[in-house]
Design brief:
This protein is mainly alpha-helical. It is built from five helices and no strands. The chain has helices spanning 2-16, 19-34, 42-67, 72-92, 100-128.
Length: 130
């Protein structure tokens, strides 16, 4: 549970960050990636970070949810609600805005993370069958 809470805290802190902080973080990441020969623009880095963050969150949420006996649908619903809450909070912040594209990327990240864990657990069951 600590890992899931830590990821939720990271999501909240990134959500509450002002526009200047978001720009600095994205630009720093862009420059870091350029050192490895990966060139990208500011907006794609910022936007695609949603996929990565929510993919990792989805995996963690699955591992926690399955330990609690949640169904796959419940895990997906919780992950999607966190993404919606994340984007919804931005409506209340003066320097941030609700972005449908970011919300969809949050949901895709959670869905892919959940799918990876589901497939992994299914394969593990198939291998352990006599």
């Amino acid at each position: 549970m600590e890992s899931c809470s830590l990821q939720q805290l990271i999501i909240l802190l990134l959500t509450l960050q002002d526009a200047t902080g978001t720009a600095k973080l994205s630009e720093g990441l862009r420059l870091w990636l350029e050192r490895f020969g990966l060139k990208s623009d500011f907006h794609s880095i910022r936007s695609n970070a949603h996929l990565v963050l929510y993919f990792l969150f989805g995996i963690t949420l699955c591992l926690y949810g399955k330990e609690c006996g949640w169904t796959w649908w419940a895990i997906l619903a919780v992950g999607c609600c966190v993404g919606l809450t994340d984007e919804g909070i931005k409506v209340l912040l003066p320097t941030r805005e609700f972005d449908v594209v970011d919300l969809v990327k949050d949901w895709i990240g959670v869905a892919v993370g959940t799918g990876v864990v589901a497939i992994s657990q299914h394969r593990k069951k198939e291998i352990s069958k006599p």
